[in-house]
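### Sample
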Amino acid sequence: VFQKWVNREISNFDYLIQLNTMAGRTYNDLAQYPVFPWILRDYTSEELDLNNPAVFRDLSKPIGVVNEKNAKTVKEKYNFEDPLGMIDKFHYGTHYSNAAGVMHYLIRVEPFTTLHIQLQSGRFDCADRQFHSIPATWQALMDNPNDVKELIPEFFYFPEFLENQNGFNLGQLQMSKEVVNDVVLPKWAHSPEDFIYKHRKALESEYVSAHLHEWIDLIFGYKQRGPAAVEALNVFY
């Protein structure tokens, strides 16, 4: 599979799906759901220019430190001495992929809506914590080193999850009183379909093809544990 990918006989999307499968990740287990990278950092421009390297996320860094400002906090957390010596050191107390995160992204489509409601003891979580906007989600990642969720494959092929087609009452945001309905898209996307089309195009772009291996090293490769993981600020609790 690797050789096929290097020879560009299979797409980046297919290669990531196959890597997830080989790593034992599956759509049948929310705790081991396929994981995909955030690949863009530009969610505010009117047009998305895929020839400009500045629109892409740095794939060589874990999502928690893509914003340089977070690196200091993350290092401090790792260097914190556990007085009882019981806990292994870690940079992040949460994970880049977990069941709650999958439900968070897929809250508008069943069976995930029902699973989310069960997780929240029979009701929707408060609106401010819902997945309501792609630009706002990215901004939260940049501001908060404790939020380290990567993406799920649906961001590259499934426009329906961005629409509240079932008309669920997801509440309203506290500050702006905005009702949470369809997911707010980046300015450069004119519809959920357009977002998926452009996002998939970004995934298959020259920039991502040249740098995807750096992210794969962090998630599936040698930077997962040991000294390489420590150096890469990539140790999870």
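The domain at 1-41+56-236 is CATH 1.10.1540.10 (Neurobeachin; Chain: A, domain 1). This sample (NBEL1 protein) is used throughout the tutorial notebook.
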